[in-house]
Design brief:
Strand content: over 45%
Distance between the termini: 41 Å
Shape: globular
Number of helices: 0
Structural class: mainly beta
Largest sheet: 7 strands, mixed
Order of helices and strands: EEEEEEEEEEE
Radius of gyration: 13 Å
Helix content: under 10%
Number of strands: 11
Amino acid sequence: QVQVVESGGGLVQAGGSLRLSCTASGSMLIAARAWYRQAPGKQRELVARVSIGGSTEYVESVKGRFTISRDNAKNTVTLQMNNLKPEDTAVYYCNVETFSRMDYWGKGTLVTVSS
């Protein structure tokens, strides 16, 4: 059974920083890890993704502020978020992509940025 667990959300003032972590456990061959977010009334969007080879991609609005990194040995991925803005407020979800084209999701962690 695959489990994906996020941690690190919270309330922060604009300009501040937060670090999200996600650990995956279970039997699977992971192809990529990603963070998505969903703000109230909006669709879920990809924030950042890192492949097994280490290549990364980011949504334009977070480039230069967010950094995704992974520890393959620990099956952990982190999202370092700096210079946070009120528009970054959302529930952040950790995603695991496997080579068998299965997707696994965490329950989400709330990030609130006050102005």
